[in-house]
Amino acid sequence: MSNKANAIYSTAIALIFALAVYNLFYNLGNFQIANYDEARHGVSAYEMLQNGNYIVNTYRYLPDYWNLKPPLSFWSVILGYKIVGYNALGLRLIAAVFGLLTIMMVAFFMLKKHGKLASAISALVLTTTFQYLTNHGVRTGNPDSLYVFFFTASVLALLLSGKNNKWIYISGLAFSLAFLTKSWHAFSIVGIIGIYLILSNKFRSFRFKQWILLISCMFLPIMIWGIIRYQYDGATFFKDMVAYDLLRRSSNTIEGHVGGKLFYLRIFFQFYILWFSILFGAVLVYLNKNISFKQYQLLTPDKKAYLIGICAWVIIPILIFSVAKTKIRWYIMPVYPAFSVIIGVLASRVIRDGKRAMKIFLIGAILMASGAYELNIYRYVHHDYPDPEQTLIQQLTGKYEMKGRSLFDYKRKKEWPQKIVLTAELAADLHIDDGNFNAFLRSDRGLLLVQKQFYSKKFLDTHHLRVVAFNKWGYIVGKVQ
């Protein structure tokens, strides 16, 4: 029976990992670059490479005091560029890799702690969590994939520290790496660690040396980065990091990201309702049969601490970001691995101990939910909405005579979209210029972006220009040499 169970699990988990690879990597480099965060991160990573400065992130070659993140996520994009080149795949590759590693880490943890069935269920749930993969998720060049990996690693290590204190130092180190990826967001982990240590009474057993080691693991890497960063622009970056990225985001609604106290609950219902239904159903069945206050009191301290840690993993991030004024749906992305763990634990126990009809119903519900979400993912990975302005600039890829030139826009009055800045840099190392048509005429090697309605043969002849690239959106032209 054991060999048969092992074979079934091995087959199931291999299929789930294969599905995860498909969901994460299929068509990854063919999607157009998203504006704002993905493009901004891509620009900073590219310019770090060009500048040879891997500490100060820039935007259009000036220090960036809008994207106030430590450098770890930029380094991950740089690694992607180094592996597959300056393109959308390079922008997203390492994020997708860490998405896969997160799924595998959850599966391995569940296998060791809760068995084969729980492992397979948790891996399937996370693999088919639509929001985890898509908007700002692990299929994008944003820092969230790396951040969720370190967040998950920190909490899982914390949960393993019940019997071996060495794991808590790994938890602290993973927190510091999460902070170096996404800044203040990572302090949810500090709350989880604190509640775990206090409510489990584990803090009482810590000696002074252990506290020093834990604090060092948590904050020494951050301090080292801070000291190095301070050498470049003093306290400027850190002042903005506190004033804007922490205080203003938490106390005010910025950049139009509004939402009430139930904002994240609505997000869960929009993107996670089927898994939530299975979770609540499993909770009701399991609580009815297995849990009472007296039974909780009979749990060993380690098991109590474990239960407290899992609950804090869900509650703390949701609570913190529900209180904060700025609401963005990917802020609570770290709770999706937590939900996959809880669903895996409860559903596997109901299937294992429940009546035959309940087992069949729950297995069917899990398969239907994963199938429904996988259909949404399938539609997503097979469809993109091409940006004609991006595709026009991408035609310059490989045209080495265009590299390093300045790109002007014939009629643009607003700031250049960040996705166009990144596309221009990746395609031909173009430098975006805010000058108008007259500034282009004064330049020696400039290129001009001209929308179709402003283009004519007479326009070319009058100014001695030639077409470099064109599509249905417009033209890129340069001077006749």
UniProtKB/TrEMBL annotation:
Residues 69-225 form the Glycosyltransferase RgtA/B/C/D-like domain. The chain crosses the membrane at residues 6-25, 89-111, 146-162, 168-199, 211-232, 267-286, 306-324, 330-348, 360-381. The keyword Isomerase does not apply. It comes from the Bacteria. Keywords: Cell membrane, Glycosyltransferase, Membrane, Transferase, Transmembrane, Transmembrane helix. InterPro entries: LipidA_mod_glycosyltrf_83, RgtA/B/C-like. It is a multi-pass membrane protein. The keyword Metal-binding does not apply. GO terms for cellular component: plasma membrane. GO terms for biological process: lipopolysaccharide biosynthetic process; response to iron(III) ion. It holds the Pfam family PMT_2. One of its GO terms (molecular function) is pentosyltransferase activity. It is found in: Cell membrane. This is Phospholipid carrier-dependent glycosyltransferase. It comes from Sporolactobacillus shoreae.
